[in-house]
Amino acid sequence: DRIERETGRLDDLIGQLLLLERLEARAPDTEAVDFDLCDLLNEVVDDACFEASATNRGVELETGPPCPMRGYPALIRSALDNVLRNAVRHTSGGTAVEVAIDCGEVGAEITIRDHGPGVPEEHLETLFEPFSRVADARERSTGGAGLGLAIARRAVEIHDGRVHARNHEDGGLEVSIRLPLAAQQ
Predict the structure, then answer these.
(1) H or E element: which one contains 60?
(2) pTM of the model
(3) Residue 166 confidence (pLDDT)
């Protein structure tokens, strides 16, 4: 059983490294398509809710009207999924991760806020670098290799977007993803 688990972890790690390499080369596997960012976010949140409920956590979504976008939905899904799963992992038990999307004429901003311990200020700048891990998250039990947030940043940047993290004034970490809606890929 342990060999199978470790083999699975290595397989996941190799897959993440290959995806990161493709993103570094700005070489998505598909053509850009039109999709609704709100629908995609709803799907990611639904998946996260299922996982969060198993650990006495929740995910709350504040969404609005459709938010049409052109790009690579699989990459945006990966970015949202990595940031949201990270937030669910680090939010305190009995709390909910807050997810909101604000869609304007030229861009969308998605915020994902957990209610965990936050991140030491000195780590905020490197949080989205490959293999970057905050000291408390270095335990093997968290299962991460420090690639998820790096993948998220690269996926967002391919869409000419930006991702930023800050400690929320009321506690926890807040990640903001800004995406232009009319970007031609």
Answers:
(1) strand 58-62
(2) 0.80
(3) 96
